[in-house]
Amino acid sequence: MADVPGAQRAVPGDGPEPRDPLDCWACAVLVTAQNLLVAAFNLLLLVLVLGTILLPAVTMLGFGFLCHSQFLRSQAPPCTAHLRDPGFTALLVTGFLLLVPLLVLALASYRRLCLRLRLADCLVPYSRALYRRRRAPQPRQIRASPGSQAVPTSGKVWV
Predict the structure, then answer these.
(1) CB of 40 closer than 8 Å to CB of 46
(2) Which of 7, 28, 106, 144 could serve as 129's disulfide partner, Cβ 3.0–4.6 Å?
(3) Do 130 and 4 meet the contact criterion of CB atoms below 8 Å apart?
(4) Which distant-in-sequence residues (6+ apart) come within 8 Å of 45 by Cβ?
(5) What keywords tag this UniProt record?
């Protein structure tokens, strides 16, 4: 078996054994693909949650910057028909004041959603690509002598 960079020599019965190089390469590609898919789903979920919760503050800031005479001097009908500069200033101030609490709320809801979906459990470490697990040895059953009765033990010790 060829040496795998970063892999340790396995002592028989000591732990996981290194994979073959081709098997290691294929597992590394699959692990990378799975981790990239999980990361893309995380990013999509983050954008969806942040976009939904921060929408009121972003809308206020957008109209405030778009219609205030100090910034873009837009003469669009929605800007001139409804508010003047003091109203757009109020939109800017309210948007900035709402931004931080809504951001905290959005990040808390994203964290809760990630914990509920257990997305961190979907990430696979690269050590799984380099090493293959050994099967745990089966426990040997002790046979009772023909004349004695076998008493089932639960594995608990009462002291």
Answers:
(1) no
(2) 28
(3) yes
(4) 110, 113, 114, 119
(5) Cell membrane, Developmental protein, Membrane, Transmembrane, Transmembrane helix, Wnt signaling pathway
Per-position b or e across 119-143, b if 16+ CB within 10 A of its CB: eeeeeeeeeebbbeeeeeeeeeeee
pLDDT digits (tens, 9 = 90+) for 53-66: 999 999 999 888 88
CB atoms within 10 A of CB 67: 24
In whole angstroms, what is the distance from residue 144 CA to residue 138 CA? 19
Q: How far apart are CA 117 and CA 107, in angstroms?
A: 15
Q: Which parts of 54-137 fold into alpha helices (H)?
A: 55-67, 77-82, 85-117, 127-130
Q: Tell me how far apart the alpha carbons of residues 118 and 107 are, in angstroms, rounded to a whole number.
A: 16
Domain ranges of the chain: 17-132
pLDDT tens per residue across span 32-54: 899 999 999 999 999 999 999 99
pTM over 0.70: no
